[in-house]
Amino acid sequence: MSSRSGAVKRLLAELKDLQQNPSPDLTAAPLEDNMLEWHFTIRGPSDGGFAGGRYHGRIIFPADYPFKPPNISFLTPNGRFEVGKKICLSITGHHPEFWRPAWGCRSALVALIGFLPTPGEGAIGALDYTEPERAEFAKRSRDWTCPSCGSCNRDVLPDEADKPVEKLVAEEGLTFTMKADGDAAPASSTNDHLGSESPLTDPTPSIPTESTPVVAAAALHARPQSSLSSAASTAVQPNITQPQLRVPAAQPVVPQQQPIPAGARAPEMIVIPLDQTTIRKRQIDTCLMFVCFLIACLLLRRLNSFPLEPM
């Protein structure tokens, strides 16, 4: 019960953040009767046949969220992911070993936008339709209405919001690359973590990846977020790199050799090898000389102790 209440508290904080910082390219909200089931709508990227598309889907959060990843599935036909099937990404329940508690709903949706134009190549829940087929899906998706929540894609993400999705991807503070199954998620930083009373122990989450061979990489920059609640006052701020003065390392001083006059013969170095026997003999000779010196001193002292009688 406590884990579920922690998940609900975290999700309420994320919902407040999405409401206070709305995006023209994505939206998400829980169902009225189930806080752990959210429905989302994202705008398709401009390439890969997804231009102008709106795609609706479902996110199922576990009771121990954010310590375990959610399961994500699309409800709108799109030509990239199967409808109603849990997709296989490093931000979903298929790969809990890659999940980081600092990730949230917003970061997952931004990752989905980035993965749409990439090849599926046999991953779970992935499709590889042609661009003309995806373009037809994108055209139909604008008027698609969800039978569960009743939201229409055109109403949720209207045509007036013509901001390119690439700008959103460049502002969300995520970095992700797709890796093959078995590869560890690379270490990289994102800024899309939310502060709340539910413990977030990893302030620098690793990078979301898809379980397919490496086919693309997208670099994203951070967008500051407002505080989520009074108990969750930590806001997401972009990483600011302070300018640093680079001081060149001191070069070692190498003595310069005097030039040899023309026609002069360079001096030859004579190497005298010393073996252990020679060194030992020198030590013995030194000791013997010292002993002889001591004996001579004792003899002189002895002779001086006798009184001299007159002749």
UniProtKB/TrEMBL annotation:
It holds the Pfam family UQ_con. Residues 6-174 form the UBC core domain. InterPro entries: Ub_conjugating_enzyme (IPR050113), UBC (IPR000608), UBQ-conjugating_enzyme/RWD (IPR016135). Residues 187-210 have a biased composition (Polar residues). Gene3D superfamilies: Ubiquitin Conjugating Enzyme (3.10.110.10). Keywords: Ubl conjugation pathway. It comes from the Eukaryota. Residues 181-210 are annotated as: Disordered. PANTHER family: UBIQUITIN-CONJUGATING ENZYME E2. This is UBC core domain-containing protein. It comes from Synchytrium microbalum.
